[in-house]
Amino acid sequence: MAINEKRTITKQSVDFPGWYQDVVRDAELAEVSEVRGCGIVRPYGLKIWELIKAELSRQLEADGVENVYFPIFVPLENLEAEKDHVEGFSPELAIVTHAGGEELVNKLAIRPTSEAAMYKTYAKWIQSYKDLPLRLNQWANVVRWEKRPRAFLRWSEFLWQEGHTVFASEEESRAEVGKMLGIYKSVYEFMAIPTFSGRKSESEKFAGAVMTLTAEVMARDGKAIQGATSHYLGTNFAKVFDVKYLGADGEFHFGHQNSWGLSWRSVGALIMVHGDDNGLRLPPNIAPVQIVIVPIYKDEEARKQVLEYCENIKTNFSDKYRIKIDARDGQTPGFKFNYWEVRGVPVRLEIGPKEASEKKLTIFRRDNGKKEIIELASLEEYLPKTMKEIHENLYAQAQDFSSKNINRIESWDEIKDQVGWFEASWSEDAETEKELKEKYGIVSRVLLTEKENAAPKNKKCFISGQTAKHDWLFAKCY
RNA sequence: CGGGGUGUGGCCCAGUUGGUCUAAGGCGUCUGGUUUGGGACCAGAAGAUCGAGAGUUCGAAUCUCUCCACCCCGACCA
């Protein structure tokens, strides 16, 4: 490396995880902290999460879900109450053994998720069928001491929302599992990300759940990211925590429960779906800065003219867009162009004396790298149209990439050639999935909802040759 | 937990057959000046218990031992 060579982002094609880390750092989204596996999220990165959060919040509120907050600590005995649940989570628990200067008799777990924290209280709140449905959501941090952390996708501590609902009947409860997943899909669409949604296999479902629905996302290296999940818990937890109600029939019944969550892993998915070799590419909906104006001038006179022109534009559009003027002195336009491109700002306006005196603008689009010059007067019309186009273009690119990287395979021998995802007819036998994972590091990702009631294309399982049940999607994952 | 690697100013790092190392360079920062249409340049300045501890030695960033931390690959991952 030459002494003066500028630092560049690793190319995706060379080292995708390396590229990802470079983008996270160079776009100032986050950095590693001094605590193993925990990240420091910087203002720009957190703002993206907050914009995702705002959209989801809006939808949950519109749907009548109320927010609640429970403690970060969960009595360990509560967590241990549900057998599958504790088996799933105990390896990654952080446990508080000392507090207030003494050893605790009753150890406290830091919540890895809040089923065990909330449902004992739910049992108190629910007495009658009139108390149902109970639909609450919590925005919180949770801790899971994963062996292999990764920025945003798998940090030991992360922010998310977890919804916890109770219904009188299985029917209502199951209906909501799908409904919440639909909301998650729409939040991903808000980020211009297509998702593949449906049911998880028995071994991949949530620990303690009867059934898990997932929205899977394909990263640009062909791996899968679990974007959000929605679980039908049945009466598994209700029986443990005694969540029961007196029905109109005068009998006691256990409540049917769901839980559903989306975390800032979605920010990681966003980076991995839209990012390119120059850094981040953000869809306008969740771009902290949607429009950046770079003023260009040589002398003091031009500076004054150009800045005034820029300020006017900003004033006229700041009620509709998150807009920023990069008026830093001592930074060349070229530097600023690159600076904001790494950060994925969808639209850049370049304004110099030429534009200012001719009442024009040079517009650069981050999604396709194209520049054009337009009249100032047409900006009002141009912006909404362009923002929409950028969103649609990013979505279409992601859609196109995803569909090109899903192959149909019929036999075990074809697996070794797969780089992205593949679809195959599967027996759903746990042993075969284990074999697949051990040999190739590939797992079942999702049984698409539309395939749930369809006969498999091949009657025989691609692994075991036994009777296949459905056509599943398989992939390596983050 | 297995394999690999790295710890040196805020960041990236050179130096590791012991001795002009009184620790080099780049980025960034600060001062002044010239610049500004795709990552500007010149001059000057500040900033370092060389991960920690012990040891060997006349002398340790460099050698020995112990420990610690982090990163990457894998196993794990609702």
How does this model look, in words?
This protein is α+β, with helices and mostly antiparallel strands. The chain contains 13 helices and 23 strands. It has helices spanning 16-26, 43-62, 76-79, 83-89, 115-125, 170-190, 236-241, 265-274, 300-317, 333-342, 353-358, 379-404, 430-440, and strands at 30-32, 39-41, 66-67, 73-75, 94-99, 102-110, 134-143, 157-167, 196-199, 211-218, 224-234, 244-246, 252-254, 256-263, 291-295, 323-325, 347-351, 360-365, 371-375, 406-408, 421-426, 443-448, 470-475. A hairpin with a 2-residue loop joins strand 5 and strand 6 (102-110). The protein is globular, with a radius of gyration of 25 Å. Residues 1-5 have low confidence and may be disordered. It binds one RNA strand of 78 nucleotides through helix 1, helix 4, strand 11 and helix 10.
Looking at this protein, list some descriptive labels:
478 residues, 11-stranded mixed beta sheet, 5-stranded mixed beta sheet, 34% helix, RNA-binding
Question: Would you summarize the structure shown here?
Answer:
The protein contains 13 helices and 23 strands. By secondary structure, it is an alpha+beta fold. It binds one RNA strand of 78 nucleotides through helix 1, helix 4, strand 11 and helix 10.
Relative helix content = 25-40%
Please tally the helical runs, counting DSSP H or I stretches of 4 or more residues: 13
Over the alpha carbons, how many angstroms does the gyration radius reach?
25 Å
Low-confidence parts: 1-5
Strand percentage: 25-35%
Distance between the termini: 32 Å
> What is the mean predicted local confidence, pLDDT?
93
Please outline the major beta sheet.
11 strands, mixed
Shape: globular
Kindly report the oligomeric state of this protein.
single chain
